Fold these 4 entries.
Entry 1:
Amino acid sequence: MAALGVITLILLVFVLIFYAYLANYSERDVSFFLSVGLIMLVMNLCTNAGGTFGLAWLYLVIAVLFLGLGFAVDAHESVEFYKSIGPWLKATFSDAALLGWKALSLVVFPAGMVCFFVMYKDKPALARVCGKCGLWGLLLWAILLWAILGLAL
């Protein structure tokens, strides 16, 4: 049951990314789906921490339902989201030197934030990439820590 809680957590993060894309590129208002997705993400983390994994089925059903409703909200932009995943992966992982900076900044988020401030005058584009990855790393570490401690305790 703990595995279902973790799978649902990953699926809810994907749902949030999907609706964030729709919020930026669609004319439709998807704020309801974003807010409910955030609430479900926090509730999933809390129920995993509490050990009541039976609610993970509910989160799984709602996440799959929300992914299906995305096509009802805006079918064209939903298809464009799924089409954009391949080019995004190619652009992200094609530059080996930049990938190293991104990985360092994501995994060791304080290093990414320090790189942002150190490189800001000389290399502003690289500094922004390191800063963004550092902030995403902070968020990722917070969620992972919450999920791991919730499952372990």
Note: Residues 124-152 form the longest helix (29 residues).
Entry 2:
Amino acid sequence: MTARSRLWNIITGAIMIAVGVVMCVYPEYGLGFAAAILSFTCTIRGFGTLHYYLTMARHMVGGKRMLYFGIMYLDLGLFTSAVSGSARIYLVLYLAVIHAFNGIVDILRSRERKAVGSGDWKWTAANGFTNVIIAIASITAGLVLRSEDAVVYIYAAGLIYASCLRIAGAFRKYAIVYIQ
């Protein structure tokens, strides 16, 4: 990781912590704010992935996958912005599905890393289990308890947790493999 990317990860993590704290202080605006964040990030990621496809990935093996991911992210971002004002249940499900999917992927990645003898499989497994717990908590708070404030607090806690992981990852030493 270069010094510029380390600095970018630290700045992004600090901004994410600030957003999480603001969401905890003003929970009445939190779900709309979370929808705006999700919409913005998915839309930007969709445009970025489509740009990557148009400039480079279309000439690569498996490049069409980048096209599909770009369209999917763009659709999710536009869908979130369209639904954010009316149907709060979709936002709760959206948050839960994102955390559950990321958690399951991290758990499977940790099993794969353990099989090859990597030492950081515990970190990945802990991150995956945390994401699954956040997903279960948001489904419970949103669908069972019908509490929007609880969902906002859970999302803010997940945002602060992810930002702490981002900042910690910026300070972690990475092994560089040289091919001779």
Note: The radius of gyration is 18 Å.
Entry 3:
Amino acid sequence: MNLKPLLIALLLCAHPVYGQDNTQFAYWGDYSGSLPPEYAWDYRVTFLENRQAEVRYCKGYSNDAPGCATAKFRLSKRKFAQLMAALTPLEAELNANPAQDDPDPPIGGGAVYGKLTMNGNDVPLYAFSIGDSAARVAEVLDLLRQFTPQSAINSAKNKAKQP
């Protein structure tokens, strides 16, 4: 029996490029709220299971380039492990005891929001959580912000062109 094709297939699957999972497990975003286009902005930071992440920054109310631009970064293995170790219990708590969204949110102002997609669960991180869920959501959003380099946000912001 010729094992060469099987060996090649196994090596390709084990290779880091081919074995990486590009699945999104978390994102968070921030936006300016209702402002005239020359002052409005929003951005979203997406984290992938392969340790890659991306910032998409948009100026005005643009949805495409040149008003929107991206910057990528990668978490080290150590930082990724730290993030996952910190997120896992927070996700479990929010999944078991979901956050409550404000049924009457403020109008016009900016906010920070996000979502976790872990362990087969989608856990919303509402911009205007209420009750005890507000502190739990804020803890997760703060953690995601801590693992986002300000330089990546600035890079995407500087590439985006004002409409």
Note: Residues 54 and 142 are 17 Å apart (CA to CA).
Entry 4:
Amino acid sequence: MSHHPGDVPLSVVRQARPTAHATPRTTIVQSPWVFAAWMGTGALVAVLAGLVLGALAGAEVGIGNGRWTQAVEAHGRLQLFGFVATFVVALGLEFLPRLNQRPLLPRYVRTGVPGLIVAGSLLGAAAQFWHEEASWLAIPSGVMLTAGAIAFAVVTWRIPLPRPLSIDPQPLFVRFAALWLVAAAAQSAWALANATEGVVPTIDSQLAIEMFLRGFIILTITGIGLRAFVGHLNLNPIAPRHQVVLLGLVNLSLLAWLAGEGIGPLAGWAWLVRAANIGYGLTLLLLVREFQLLPRLTRGPRHPRYEWFIPLAWLGLVVYAVMLVGANLFFGDERLNLYQEGALRHTFILGFMVPLMAAMAHIVLARFATGRVHWEPALNMAFILVMVSWPMRVIPALGDGAPSALERTSLGLSGVVLMCGLGLVAAVALRAAWVVKRR
């Protein structure tokens, strides 16, 4: 074979086709705006439904007078499950994978779980308030509400942990919180299914409420705070053994309260209920001490707003804990009336829980959405309005008897002020969802 003088032998190199298992994959989070949309939806449920019933019942006008008990109980159902549980579960599904260094959950989980909870709460409120025509909705309401809570618990318990629980017990708080949400949802569903003319017996309603607040809410806040507060507010972490003690005290005090109030052979033991309340109140004070948040109130105005709002909300928790301990130490065996119990409970809700939700919205909407809070002044005003509504709701209900006409006006106005505050929260959250969706 002859070669020309200019011929140069060439070797052809072909690029090997990558095998299927070697193909790089890019994880794309589907619908990253979902959590903000559920935050806004939960707040709208409170504004357009729950607070409307609460304001009418507080002022005892219109349908809030003719169906006072149904309005009050439906108001509580919508506020706790339709607003708070939807809001907190949506954030939990966003927080938990990040805290445990895992990929974000699929879209159907982040969409479906809060959707079941909010739908169940709406159907339940309808079954209760319009009991003549819609009492049949109690069953599908309970199924949806409990299914949503169980789904959240399953997701929470199945997320792999980056460290052993013996070294980092923080995930136990959120896991036990999810179990208490299941218990509260199941109790609420059972009570509504056995209601008479839309009225649930007071003790059945109280069991669900206290499981929700003392179990689900306080353990979720503590569990998230052990990472989020420490990281965003530059706090000293709580020692693992102290975390275990706090977790045990919260759960034991709640179990003791449930046993004394109506579950098991110890039902009706007033001294056990008082001891459980005192123990729970002291545990909350210990929790505040461990987090060391109150000294942060002295920080100057140059720091982000949430660094002042979060400790201010925790000041409301101190007030609640002191009121709870004081009422059980000095009232003896006398029980608080319904108005006084509502005032005590709303000190926790409006003095601590809802302001903290508004304060944390500053962090999550900036970190998980667009990098900054759109309409941040509106969110700041929302926090202020919630704090203003707190004394307007609590002080008129502290007396021995039913509130006077003037005091009922204050109760109604507190609902209006809270509507404005939560309306701003809804607007800011939905605005963030819209911006992320457009991007």
Note: The two ends are 64 Å apart (CA to CA).
